[in-house]
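[Q] Does anyone have a clean structure-token version of this?
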Amino acid sequence: MKKFPSMALVAFVTVMPARLLDEKFFLLASSTEDGDALLPQGELSTLPPKGENVSENAMSDPRNPIRKLFRGERLDLWSLKAPDWKSFDKNASIDSLVRRRCKKAGIEPSPEADRRTLIRRLSFDLIGLPPTMKEVERFIGEDSPDAYENLVDRLLASPRYGERQARLWLDVVRYADTQGYERDEFRPLMWKYRDYVVKSFNRDKPFDHFVREQLAGDELVAGPPKNEEEADALIATGYLRLGQWDSTASIFQEDDRLRAEQMADLTNTTASAFLGLTMSCCQCHDHKYDPLSQADHYRLRAFFSGVEAEDELVVELPEKLAEIRRRNETLDTRMEALKKKESELKEEKDEEGLARIEKEKENLEKKRLKPSFATGASDSGSSTPVTRVFYQGDFRAPREEVFPGFVSVLHPGPAKVTQPRDDTSGRRLTLANWIASPENPWTARVIVNRIWQQHFDRGLVETPNDFGLAGAKPTHPDLLDWLALQFVRDGWSIKELHRKIVTSATYRQSSSIPPRKGGSPSPHAHPDPENTLLWRQNPRRLDAETLRDSLLAVSGLLKTKNAGKPLWPEVPEDLLKAQPSILEALEGKDGGRMQGWYPDPKNPADVRSLYLVRKRSLPIPFLQAFDLPGTTVSCGRRDTTIVAPQALMLLNSPSAVRYAKAFSKRVAGLTDDAGFNDAANAVKTVKTVFRLVLQRDPAPDESRLARDLLARHMLKRREKRDEPEARRLALADLCRAVLNLNEFIYID
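[A] Here you go.
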């Protein structure tokens, strides 16, 4: 047996597929008492001599042991190479990098879209709501050369901006208000994490700090929070609790299984959300495509080994805590006096007096104040559990111990963990600092790609959660790298990134396909029919929440809600009864575990979809029809399907009918029409409908068809109803038809 230095052994932990583990390869995770470990003769001969560390990555240092496992294409992966300013000239921009590719392909970019299209596109992209007709007219009529830039600034400053961006981020981190599994119990305080995300985007919190707070907010704060920023950091640790939780695990003595599942889920989600790496398969074996060993998964998992759940994490500020303490001390004094009086009455056997005292005690308890809590996490500190590799990913087959470490292809050595305090391990903060480092080749690219996808329907990398060999290659690698470098240079500002993208000529292009000489404007006749080179803008369908929010806004039902507990809309009873846990609650067997569905009255629930409850086992039907993603894994990009239930939902669902009726009342209130028999009134009514829904006047043919619809439907309704009712229903039918137009449902 040959001896190798312990530093090299601790530096890199590698695991081959389990079937080879005992035959050829071995784990390098532990050492003998003298600091050296014993390895088979001839294996891993690329390790450096004793006393010499492997300090560089696998691409530049042939001694990196990862090269023993992975060669060729895997190590030539584009995302492993950090972007470099030297590859760009000083005049580089989004437009120059895009149009250079178009020119090389002989493609002319599309012209700029008209102002109405631009304000609709911007409004939906940045705040997730349609503009009002007044806003459109103001923008179209503004003569200032900075009109467009001023519009961008107004939208970025809107409190609705944070709500829009939060919706996108909550997809990535698989947010839900319930536990999941069969019982799917409600998490009463999870919404505070949602509000934290909204607030962070509105305040343009630097993304690197946003990362650190979510992964290690508790390690950034010593003791109770001293200010709002520290309270937010603690609330941010709700990210660590977003995975599913099986409340029955302890009943069946399956705590170890549940813990293993949670650690795996947290590791995989963190890798996907922040790094664009797929590490779920590494639980069982080395990655089949990317240079990620099984050990890499468990090295990353070791950073989270000290996470402890906190369902009542105190986030109250000192002033409020002191007020609560004073109030409760006063109540304690009065309670002691009542107890003394109670003892006297017991001796006197005064039943009436005892009943009175008991009632007074109950009233005092109701007045007792509690500090504000949040669902989050803390750290086990010095008692951090050991992390071991699971044979074939089976938690019942733990093998060798591993230590916290980053991706071995870049950092074969162990992570240098620094404890910020005695009561925390410092592991997650170490991980967060590495992820949020400007030198990390993934983080800036991944978030830049997500923001680009928001504005163009697909990212520069079409697989936002997979920057590996099995994912898509970047269509514009130079643009992706330039944006990532600019993003870091701009202080990791998400708002500045949005501003840079939406003010580019590339974003402002029309989505129409210009006619070709002597032929039709068919996209199939174009040399780039998929628009890979970005020679035009991509039309996009509104996502589920934006569609519902827009329907509420247009109909006049949308209510402002800025924070707080989620609201429960009504759901068809047959769907509720199809859920075993909900059925138990309906039958009075909930047992206080919040398994059921608790609808609010309709009007209070008419808020943005972001503030509706996300129950894992029962998505809201209207949203689900329009491709609402699941909440068990990170969703980097939503599916966009076109299926019959969507048309039926928009035309015939109780929600759609209600929106149309409310919209018709709004139109009637604005037009004050006496009837559609009057041609001028009918024209005015149709014009109002189009201006409210589409922010434009109807074309002559559209106006004629809409007036014909009104006349025919009112005539039909008159057969069984009086004229005012027939008129109201006919107008509601027109409103429903216009709300189903593609022009309303799609962003041009």
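[Q] Thanks! Anything notable?
[A] Residues 318-348 form the longest helix (31 residues).
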